[in-house]
Specification:
Layout (H helix, E strand, L loop, with lengths): L6 E14 L10 H4 L2 E11 L4 E6 H7 L5 E6 L4 E4 L1 E3 L11 H8 L4 H6 L4 H10 L2 H17 L2 E7 L6 H17 L3 E9 L8 H21 L7 E4 L8 H13 L3 E6 L7 H8 L3 E4 L5 H10 L2 E4 L1 H7 L6 H6 L4 E3 L12 H12 L3 H7 L2 H6 L17 E4 L6 H4 L4 H4 E6 L2 E5 L10
Parallel strand pairs: 1-4, 1-5, 6-7, 7-8, 8-9, 9-10, 10-11, 11-12, 12-13
Antiparallel strand pairs: 1-2, 2-3, 5-14, 14-15, 15-16
Length: about 425
């Protein structure tokens, strides 16, 4: 009998238990994203294996399980329980901040002007190449801990500030180390085609990646040293053109990597059409996506990872979230945390998505949970509160879940607990005595 087996955690009597999905959906789009599954006066059980064992009305759960079987019980009266947030796009491994470039942007310099002057990615590459693996891990760990405290329990993490095999592997080793030693979930991405290295043409860089980088990644995967999940390319005018992008992505797919790349950000490149053709799992940015690209992505079930922080900080045109949603694209969100867009907080990303991209709060939460998990190929285990999924949860000290989005920058006082696999990873003691209103 389930009620007599040892269990890890009982969350009891939540004011709102936000399931997001309730019928095993891998993603939500159109009406599904607009209306989320929410239970009131509900409880949730996480087993010793870290997976959700039961979700339902508090009295039903109470009758089904004995309190004596739980390692921990949290009274969620007056609180809301949500799935752990999923950040579908970050660049968190690097050295050398670029705070000086923020002043340049405010004075009117464009992203590509800074890039061409040796700043931007090239500035970070120079500092990351010089940094030791230990230095990179220390700052990376600190950044992940801040993401966790803001409610993110699964984060996509890219390399891409090496642009040579040695440094890319150093970054991927750092990510692998965090995967194995930290509680936060990580989906790792090889992004060696983040920029064209100084002294090389795009064609030479493409050949180097296909002939040297990717075979080495395959070798390290087979030996069990590094497991990379995704391949990324910055498909952009003056960086990697459509044909170079196609060659790299196909080569990555051939060694078993999911395609998840930067496209149509600063110029219309037909990246969305290419991604749909290649069977990409996700494409990020898409500020300059074409109507045909939107249609192709919807048909191919290729997720659009929208990054409202980037458009906000670079003063770009906002991605067409409403058009994508109406046409049936699977819309996900990411923070794009990097030296250029320094934001750890998915609650703030959701707020910006609602205000600047005209998404509803329901659509934004779906985009930061189940759809972001889908963009990483993980929606079978993450992104909703359903039996069998991993017990990753956020508890907020409010009687309505919408406060997580409504309180812009207020998540630090609002998030009460962050839980991974049924274990409390972060507890904010001040929430117990504070009102969220």
């Amino acid at each position: 009998m389930a009620g007599r087996e040892r269990q890890r955690l009982l969350l009891e009597n939540a004011q709102q238990l936000v399931l997001v999905c309730g019928r095993g959906e891998r993603y939500l789009r159109r009406d599904g994203a607009a209306g989320l599954a929410v239970l009131r006066g509900a409880s949730l059980v996480v087993g010793l294996d870290g997976c959700i064992k039961a979700v339902g009305q508090a009295d039903v759960i109470r009758n089904q399980f004995s309190e004596a079987t739980f390692e921990r019980i949290i009274d969620c009266s007056g609180k809301c329980v949500l799935p752990g947030l999923v950040d579908a796009h970050t660049h968190p491994v690097w050295a050398g901040d670029r705070v000086h470039e923020f002043a340049m942007k405010l004075a009117g310099a464009s992203y590509m002007e800074i890039h061409q002057a040796g700043g931007g990615i090239h500035f970070t590459v120079e500092h990351t190449r010089k940094a030791t693996e230990e230095e990179l891990f220390s700052t990376f760990k600190h950044r992940l801990e801040r993401m966790l405290r803001a409610g993110s329990t699964l984060v996509e993490c890219k390399s891409g500030y090496g642009l040579n095999l040695e440094t890319e592997l150093k970054m991927l080793r750092v990510i692998e180390r965090a995967k194995r030693s930290m509680d936060i979930g990580i989906s790792s991405t090889y992004c060696g085609a983040h920029a064209v290295p100084k002294g090389k043409t795009a064609t030479e860089a493409t050949d180097d990646i296909i002939n040297n980088h990717l075979p080495k990644l395959k070798e390290l995967k087979l030996s069990g040293e590094i497991h990379v999940n995704n391949i990324d390319v910055f498909c952009e005018k003056g960086v990697f053109d459509l044909e170079s992008t196609r060659r790299i992505l196909q080569a990555g797919k051939d060694i078993g990597l999911q395609i998840n790349f930067h496209g149509d950000e600063l110029h219309p490149m037909k990246s969305a059409e290419l991604g749909a053709e290649l069977g990409a799992r996700a494409i990020s940015h898409l500020e300059e996506v074409s109507d045909e690209g939107i249609t192709a992505m919807a048909r191919a079930k290729c997720a659009a990872v929208l990054l409202p922080t980037t458009a906000y900080m670079l003063r770009l045109k906002q991605p067409q979230a409403r058009k994508m949603l109406e046409e049936g694209v699977i819309v996900a969100l990411g923070s794009d945390f990097n030296p250029n867009a320094y934001c750890f907080s998915m609650p703030m990303v959701m707020h910006l998505a609602c205000v600047n991209m005209k998404m509803s709060m329901n659509e934004a939460l779906a985009a930061a949970t189940i759809n972001a998990a889908y963009a990483l190929g993980r929606s079978d285990t993450h992104g909703s509160l359903e039996v069998g999924k991993q017990g990753d949860l956020v508890i907020i000290n409010s009687s309505r879940w919408e406060h997580l989005i409504y309180q812009f920058g207020g998540h630090e006082a609002l998030i009460n607990y962050v839980i991974v696999k049924g274990k409390v990873i972060y507890q904010n003691e001040t929430c117990e005595t504070m009102s969220s209103y």
